[in-house]
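To the wet lab folks,

You asked to see what we're planning to order before we commit. Fair enough. Below is the target structure as tokens, and below that is the sequence we designed to fit it. If anything looks off to you, flag it before the synthesis order goes out.
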């Protein structure tokens, strides 16, 4: 555990790179078009990569603010990942622009607008699975694991030795 915490910045950076590269590979080489929820789940990884690079150039890659801001990005991503997994399992409702459902309307123009604004890829459809887990479910588990280790790192920073080198 201490080994992971000592190298947490590097591990977090690599996990984020792997997550983004996997998503982009699936999108561009396997022709798996992402839905709006999938795209929102990528934002935290982009933010984490950018933050680590910026903090590294200022020689502050062990700064607690890096991990607190990353924590917020991780929670944002976890929110969308769990919501997306819930939509896929028909447990939660998705945004109207992503669910593929049209609401009742008396106006033809309103129905036309709904159809035009409808997402091409439906968020409730699972495009692929591995070990019977969808990409959103896997992303939820990865982000939960990252959240746990990032929280442990922050806790150790404040209540531990103040330096995890």
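Sequence we intend to order:
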């Amino acid at each position: 555990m201490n080994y992971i915490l000592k190298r947490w910045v590097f591990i977090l950076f690599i996990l984020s790179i792997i997550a983004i590269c996997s998503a982009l590979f699936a999108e561009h080489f396997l022709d798996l078009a992402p839905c709006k929820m999938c795209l929102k789940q990528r934002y935290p990884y982009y933010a984490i990569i950018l933050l680590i690079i910026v903090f590294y150039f200022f020689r502050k890659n062990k700064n607690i603010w890096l991990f607190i801001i990353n924590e917020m990005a991780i929670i944002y991503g976890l929110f969308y990942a769990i919501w997306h997994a819930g939509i896929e399992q028909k447990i939660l409702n998705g945004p109207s622009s992503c669910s593929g459902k049209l609401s009742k309307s008396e106006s033809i123009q309103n129905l036309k607008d709904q159809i035009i604004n409808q997402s091409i890829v439906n968020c409730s459809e699972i495009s692929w699975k591995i070990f019977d887990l969808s990409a959103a479910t896997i992303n939820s588990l990865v982000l939960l694991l990252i959240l746990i280790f990032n929280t442990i790192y922050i806790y150790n920073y404040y209540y531990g030795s103040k330096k995890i080198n």
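Structural context that might help your review: Strands lie at 129-130, 133-134. The longest helix spans residues 64-88.

Thanks,
Computational group
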